[in-house]
Sequence to fold (560 residues):
Amino acid sequence: MLPPGTLALSIIFGWIALSTIIAILAGILKKFSLEEWFVASRGLSFVVIYFALAAEIYSGFTFLGLAGWAYKFGAPILYALAYFVTAYSVGFMLTPYYNRIARKLGLVTQPDYFVTRYESRWLGVLVAIIGVIFFVPYIQLQIGATGIIIELASYGAIARTTAMIIAFVLVALFIFIGGIRGVAWTNVLQGILMWIIAIALLSVPFTTFGGIEPMFRQLEAVSPQHLTLPGAAGIHGIPWYMSTLLLCTLGFWMFPHLVMRAYAAKDEKTIMRSTAWMSWYSILAFPIVIVGLYAILMYPELANPDWAVMWTVRDMFPAWAVGLVGAGGAAAAISTGAGLIQASAGIIARNVVQKGFWPKASDIQTAWIARFLVFIVTIVALLLQLYAPSLLVSLLLMSYSGMVQFFPGIVLGLKTKWVTKAGVASGLISGVFVVILTTYVWSNPLQIHSGIWGLLVNLIVTIIVSKITTPPSETTIKAFLEEAATKA
Amino acid sequence: MSEGEAGKRERCALYLALIAPVIMILGAPLINRTEPYIAGMPFIFFWHLLWLIIGPIFLTTAYLIRIGKIKV
Fold:
């Protein structure tokens, strides 16, 4: 009999190896080009785009963080379950436009949308830089989650640092070769695994307490504040819940990697269908929240709340199941990380290099730059995780708040004629500035989330500045508004 | 198919898709309670589980309306 750690580890690394091979195969079977590497030649079918989105959206945070938050704060985590429902409604409305406009105007990244709509490559550079700054902490978070999962699943046999390095070197390799297609195919594998795990986790309270209700009743006796807002810390009241839910609902489809996935779908019907069906996926987050609450009763003294899922699994299931859950969790973190890395490298290459400082770069040169940037982005994120893990936690706090600042530029660009590049740029900058103020100087005034304060100021500035500056050319406006209008 | 019919389909789909966000955000002050327990869980947890199921039903219906599989 193998030691339990070895078994778990062989499953996890077997999984990663299999993903790498599939991704590489998916990549080398296609001719390398800008459109292929960035948006899979706009040809991803429903099944692939569905699992690609699912695996990118359900990340290491879904696996460890949801339970960790439930463990630490209790009911406030329900905001996340709520936005897993509401965000898809917004996606259902926005993504068909993304897909249609990108196909017609040849967009391959999210900042491209701004470059084309506002006829300004420097606005594209600004959007790209803001996007990537708020992105790097997310990549780092995925790397950290992978480390925790592998360390716990191996029962301490592999140190976190080694695990992180091995896993993400492989990831960088498969994105280098496979681009978005590689990312998408590995995610198909992960999607299936996550469902199995969620169902298995649901059995835990039944085995220990004989049902959900006895568990909740006991929790009510031990820590009633975990069961309602404002939660165990007392800082997540109703205004916080409402504003955070609004923030995530509006901000979700602003994330550059998700915008790029909408471009990669083979037509607008496919992406609409994916977002509609994706909403069914969210239910698998529910058992994970339950496990977080379960851990409050079982392990009241966890040093790190993010361990809740892995501790529960180690106690309740045999070693092979630990391997499977570890593989699922690591795959979740890795696939999200891969998508984020691919998008960041793509955005820097396309919008900072090709459309910014080196306009002479051809498409194929840009694609090669993006490929090599994959390694640089990975290395930077790894180094930050290894040497300054707390440095970026502060940025992560603002990730959603930062992303939602793209909302006025994208939505006003679809619906109005008068919005201008000066308006969008000044709105964006003032929005981000207000987010920083309301995160660090006055933290969430009136318990309303910093991102919403930023968005409010951003909208006002965008409108005022747009009204006094000149909008882009008629042809551009027409191209966008026509695409946004009803189609038979 | 006339432009008007497509427009009507799109509008219906839009309203249907908006139900979940509007109710979930604006309903928050009303659902912050543990009693009554339903399906073995405090009300606020049950409420979220409920929407994890009916939200997708609305959205899938919206999609089917939008592509014309369900007539409006």
Observations:
- Residues 160-202 of chain A form the longest helix (43 residues).
- The CA atoms of residues 30 and 36 of chain A lie 8 Å apart.
